[in-house]
Design goal:
heterodimer, A: alpha/beta, 6 strands, about 40% helix, B: about 575 residues, alpha/beta, Rossmann fold, 20 helices
């Protein structure tokens, strides 16, 4: 299974990839995760990969091989959609964050991204930020998105929740669980 | 049952050091090596520290080795340049307790200033170099590196790369083996590298390398995997994984020992397969040596010397196509930017408004080079900002640098900037140096340093006062300014560059990501009062975007309430208010 998680530095993509990796490990599978640290984390486009199966070699997902692409932002979904294999699943957190190139007028934010993506891929969207705000903490949007993705990745609800509870900070277990379930059942 | 854990490459290296009985590790942070020290600091059995730079770190580790304990120094590839002075001569002295230098290369330049290949340095220093290909190997090979160091009386370079350091895979854990401290014996011909000793030790170095090249063929860290014999790959590190992915049926000689190369093992492999590919990221280190032995292999004529490799890249060469199924969409780039609330932005906005060029340095503030701030003109290496500014002045005179400053972070200043500042004082410079003092080593993820008052282990310690340090070396004018005091900063910079007195301005405010800070305020734009002038957009804050009608919107979840945008709004449309 090849899963790719993309977003904007600071959105919590790293935690998401670690939860997916741990869930696969708990199911007795070989797992590799690739992360981005350093300068790229500073508000830039960030990418992490999770791969699992009976034996995994490279830690990255390459173009044309992603089973599931989880995008925390629309433009990032567009940027990396070509990593999907034919028949792959695209999960998009339906939000817009303007890159500096757009803010200063050097580039235009593309219109109708979701429609463009739907022409070639199976797309599921969720407004993670709105749901997270509804349940009281806009920072748990990654758990909402993970919840939606989890339904398309596999493993049981219990398997996911066991790892989630074990990974997020103790004080936020309840709200993260709630956020995950909102995404899972959306 | 052995406990298995999913571990980052750097976590596994730290675990390997712990299990190998390492007693001391010294390091300077640098992506992608930083987390090794942070993970290692969690083991009470190991003394770990941040040193001000890599040369100091390696010398500290060498001292511990001479004193008879297993020790380690960790750094990124360019850090090894700083540590080169001790490195080349430690190859001569050899060790007492095992000494391993962990060096993290950055193929693809994810967070560095160049793409140099540490394997080349190992060759020129005549030091063994070991390279693992996943986290489990990272731990096991590191333990092997310590055994090798002691049995061959040599420091060992342990090379990792960004992909290895920053990917996680499954690792079986083991217990720590506590080695006996070795006895120290005074030995001038071994440890005092004056000419008479060094001449003798050079002979030892060459003999040692020859012997290891011979013995290396039997080392367990090299592995021949015979499958289809039509094609054979000689590879190592993360590149091995790409080979297995793209050509699962091919035979592979996977090398763990890269210097010296195990010649006999390689020759046997070449004789076993019809066609040999050498698949190695960056320089043709393995390939050129094999060619020099008289064998014909395929390598850099097919595979680039730049960037990271991939399985798709190999597929394109082997099969004429990769697995990509869709075309690449056009999407505006999203390069990294300074965070909301970053104090560097405030300083650069002032320099930009004064049309001042900055000789920059290594840190997040390199991002001051790009639009819309456009302030930094040069970035070479740690500490270079101050020396470059000095060189400009001495070459072209003091008038030439009236619209120049040097900008350098607090950690980078202590790393090697201080030497350059001493040079300015000594040689009667008049320039302006701005220390961007954000109270941490920011870019690598907030490591303590000698001016923060805490050690790597989190213990309180003396905090060097940067202003006093500058005064003590003779800087005549040292001024500390709050980095967010835009007016004060503008006035001070203008006075300094126009004057003839060497000045250090310490622009002080904590990194916005530093733990323990609270952000009680948030900025809001009143769209009724907004005149759409765009002045606030010129500071390049990611929390500020434009509405469809051209007025400005500030994202309240991203905004840290630093108020910099408010300072630039002439119409009072932006207000800093207590967060609801």
């Amino acid at each position: 299974m090849n899963i790719m998680i993309v977003g904007v530095g600071g959105q919590g993509t790293l935690l998401t990839s670690r939860i997916i990796g741990k869930t696969a490990l708990a199911a007795g599978l070989d797992v590799k995760i690739s992360e981005v640290h350093g300068m790229a984390q500073r508000g830039g486009s960030v990418v992490t990969f999770v791969r699992y199966g009976s034996e995994v070699f490279e830690p990255v997902v390459e173009e044309g091989t992603a089973d599931v692409l989880i995008a925390f932002e629309r433009l990032e979904a567009l940027r990396y959609a070509h990593y999907l294999k034919k028949g792959g699943t695209l999960i998009v957190n339906d939000t817009r964050i303007d890159p500096m190139t757009v803010v200063i007028g050097a580039a235009k934010y593309p219109e109708n991204i979701i429609d463009t993506l739907r022409a070639e891929h199976t797309v599921y969207t969720v407004d993670g930020g709105r749901i997270a705000a509804e349940i009281g903490n806009s920072r748990v949007l990654n758990s909402v998105v993970l919840g939606l993705a989890a339904r398309h990745i596999g493993f049981t609800e219990e398997e996911w929740l066991a790892v989630l509870r074990d990974t997020v900070p103790q004080k936020t277990v309840e709200i993260n669980t709630l956020a995950f379930l909102r995404g899972y059942n959306s | 049952m052995t406990e298995k854990r999913i571990m980052l490459g750097n976590d596994a290296i730290a675990r390997g050091a712990f299990e190998a009985g390492v007693k001391l590790s010294s390091a300077y942070p640098g992506t992608p090596s930083t987390e090794i020290s942070e993970f290692l600091a969690k083991y009470d059995e190991v003394y770990t520290e941040w040193a001000p730079n890599e040369k100091v770190a390696l010398e500290v580790a060498a001292g511990a080795s001479i004193a008879g304990v297993r020790s380690m120094a960790c750094m990124k590839h360019v850090g090894l340049n700083v540590a080169s002075d001790p490195l080349y001569t430690l190859a001569y002295t050899g060790v007492n307790g095992g000494l391993v230098i962990v060096v993290a290369d950055d193929p693809g330049i994810a967070s560095s200033q160049n793409e140099q290949d540490t394997r080349m340095i190992a060759r020129s220093a005549h030091l063994p170099l070991i390279e693992p290909s996943d986290s489990a190997e990272a731990k096991e090979f590191l333990k092997f590196a310590f055994d090798l160091s002691e049995s061959y009386d040599t420091p060992v370079i342990f090379r990792t790369t960004t992909k290895l350091s920053h990917s996680q895979s499954v690792v079986p854990l083991a217990e720590r083996k506590e080695p006996e401290d070795r006895t120290y014996e005074r030995c001038v011909p071994k440890y005092v590298m004056m000419p008479a000793s060094a001449i003798g030790r050079h002979v030892v170095v060459e003999k040692r390398e020859e012997k290891m090249a011979e013995d290396g063929s039997a080392f367990p860290i090299n592995r021949t995997e015979l499958r289809d014999r039509k094609i054979g790959f000689i590879t190592s590190g993360i590149a091995y994984q790409y080979v297995r992915e793209a050509a699962p049926e091919a035979s592979v000689l996977k090398l763990g020992l890269i210097n010296p190369l195990p010649k006999r093992l390689i020759e046997e492999f070449i004789a076993t397969v019809d066609e040999v590919y050498v698949f190695e990221e960056l320089e043709p280190v393995i390939e050129e040596q094999i060619r020099a032995w008289g064998y014909s292999v395929k390598g850099k004529e097919l595979f680039t010397k730049q960037g990271e490799y991939s399985a798709n890249m190999l597929r394109r060469v082997l099969y004429g196509e990769d697995l990509a199924a869709f075309s690449v969409a056009e999407a505006p780039k999203r390069p990294p930017i300074l965070c909301p609330g970053c104090p560097h932005r405030s300083v650069f906005s002032v320099l930009n408004s004064l049309k001042i060029h900055a000789a920059g340095d290594i840190g997040c503030y390199t991002l001051g080079a790009v639009a819309p701030l456009n302030v930094i003109d040069t970035t070479i290496c740690m500490g270079s900002s101050i020396s470059l500014l000095h060189g400009m002045e001495m070459a072209r005179g003091k008038e030439y640098i009236k619209n120049w400053v040097a900008t350098i972070g607090d950690s980078t200043f202590l790393h090697t900037g201080i030497n350059s500042l001493i040079n300015m004082v000594y040689n009667k410079a008049t320039g302006t140096v701005i220390i961007l003092d954000n109270r941490t080593t920011g870019m690598t993820g907030h490591q303590e340093h000698a001016a923060t008052g805490k050690t790597l282990k989190g213990e309180p310690t003396h905090a060097i006062d940067l202003a006093e340090l500058c005064r003590s070396v003779g800087v005549p004018r040292v001024i500390t300014v709050d980095a967010f005091d835009v007016e004060g900063l503008r006035r001070t910079v203008r006075e300094s560059v126009n004057g003839d007195t060497l000045t250090v301005i310490i622009a002080k405010a904590p990194c916005a990501l530093l733990k323990g800070q609270s952000f009680p305020d948030v900025c809001e734009c009143d769209t009724e009062s907004c005149k759409k002038c765009g002045a606030c957009l010129k500071i390049g804050c990611p929390a500020i975007t434009k509405n469809a009608d051209g007025t400005v919107k500030i994202d309240e979840t991203m905004c840290n309430g630093c108020g910099l945008c408010q300072s630039y709004c002439k119409f009072g449309a932006i207000k800093k208010l207590p967060r609801a």
